[in-house]
Amino acid sequence: MCVEATVNGTSVQYVLSSTQTVGWMGMGFGNQMSNSPMIIMWSNSDGTITVSQREASGHSMPQVVSNPDRVATLAESASTTSGSETRFAFTVDANGDTSESVIYAFGRTNPGSSSMSANIQQHIDDGTLQLNLAGTLSATSTGSASSPGSTSGTTPSSDSLSIPLQPYQRMIIAHAILCVVGFLFFLPFGSLLARYVRTFTPKWYTGHWISQFAISGPLIVVGFALGVQSVTSSESLHLDDDHKQWGVAIFVLYWVQCALGAFIHWVKPKRSTGRPLQNYFHAVFGLFIIALAFYQVRTGYKTEWPNTTGRGDIAKGADIIWYIWVVAVPLLYLAGLAFLRKQYRQEAAAKGRTNHLQYEFDMSDVQHRYHN
């Protein structure tokens, strides 16, 4: 990829060119991705060229800026999308600088939309350069000319190029794995264990709390911490979208549910004519958290990952697994409701024995006082 700059009085014309297969090309004013004004360009099927001005808060997909300080205007006469070389040209107002720090990026995948806000996949090549805008061009120059400070970078020619994961992206993957295992495997497992096993052995609670707290807890805490750290490492904003906001909410709700479960187990009502209301709430609240977790995981791999990293959609297999699991878990739980009547009978019998023992204790106390 080559970046050329030509000063024409009060404006500067920039040309982004490449002899490779172009998805999109872009450049920005600055020496790092964070908060640098960017101009990203790509061709459309109707022959037009989209000029999208964006900024990014970190190493994430840049977002459209509706009112940029320097408005870029497509230079159609200097642009071409046919032949052996693709050229995207635009002009902006000159700012009087004689030297310009520039970042550039090259992507192979076309956004597939003429919308300025279309999602773009991560670049396969990027870099920084310094343009000398005080240089002069020879009057006899022919063809395309570049300023003396122009710098070019060539993208790799392999179509099977694999883009290495950046450190923050590895954190996102670890965050996703731990949270999926914690929220969508061990939490449902603990709920199903309580639903199926409690009528056969009183030890069901041991397996329930181990699954729901002892195993899920560390997985969820570490997964949540990695999610927060990945946002920090990518220099992105915290809590700026639904996935991040719901992530914090579900994390808090999980610990509320754990506290409620401990309260129900250790604090028993002295006298009760039926099943305590908090027991029902605990069960329903747990199912609600699992439902939210399904939603959260889906937005994570369908929206958050491509928008944050620009690496495109997750493989279709993730969708298949999610659909199977989101159907299987409710069906398994509904099937377990067949044991509910047996559970109620056992609880009523246990309550009757407890009341009978309490009655005998009370009567013996009365008799003891009478004889005294």
Automatic annotation (TrEMBL):
Its main location: membrane. The chain crosses the membrane at residues 172-197, 209-228, 248-267, 279-297, 320-340. Gene3D superfamilies: 1.20.120.1770, Cellobiose dehydrogenase, cytochrome domain. Residues 1-107 form the DOMON domain. Pfam families: CDH-cyt (PF16010), Cytochrom_B561 (PF03188). GO terms for cellular component: membrane. Keywords: Electron transport, Membrane, Transmembrane, Transmembrane helix, Transport. Residues 130-343 form the Cytochrome b561 domain. SUPFAM superfamilies: CBD9-like (SSF49344). Residues 139-159 are annotated as: Disordered. This is CBD9-like protein. It is found in: Membrane.
